[in-house]
Design a protein that fits this description.
With 113 residues, the protein is α+β, with helices and mostly antiparallel strands. It has 6 helices and 3 strands; from the N terminus they run αααβααββα. It is 64% helix and 12% strand.
Length: 113
């Protein structure tokens, strides 16, 4: 027996089928920032640009090498970018959608603007 979808159900099914690539992109983003250290790094960078030493201190990392690994993962995924400033490498968010998402989470879960 085949069940006929309601108009709303069919509309949602069609939308999901048209947006498969976008859905995969969002899932990949969530998987990437589901790591606590990477999530904290993204939260820090949503507030401004920082060098690796500052990021490590802010997120409470015990090893700088762990922060560097996480920064590399985020950079390769296109979430953050880096630039040289004399002897320091400065990191910043490269994706405004991620900045907006973090802002939304801060507002909804922490009551912060």
């Amino acid at each position: 027996m085949t069940k006929v979808l309601t108009e709303t159900g069919q509309m949602l099914k069609d939308r999901f089928e048209r947006n498969e690539a976008m859905c995969q992109h969002v899932i990949s983003l969530f998987q990437l920032i589901s790591n606590k250290t990477r999530f904290r790094i993204v939260c820090v960078l949503s507030q401004g640009d920082f060098c690796v030493q500052d990021i490590a201190e802010i997120v409470g990392a015990e090893r700088l090498s762990n922060i560097s690994q996480q920064l590399k993962s985020l950079r390769l995924a296109g979430i953050i970018e880096s630039r040289r400033d004399k002897t320091n490498v400065i990191y910043s968010l490269a994706n405004e959608q991620v900045r907006h998402m973090i802002g939304y989470l801060h507002k909804e879960f922490l009551g912060e603007e």
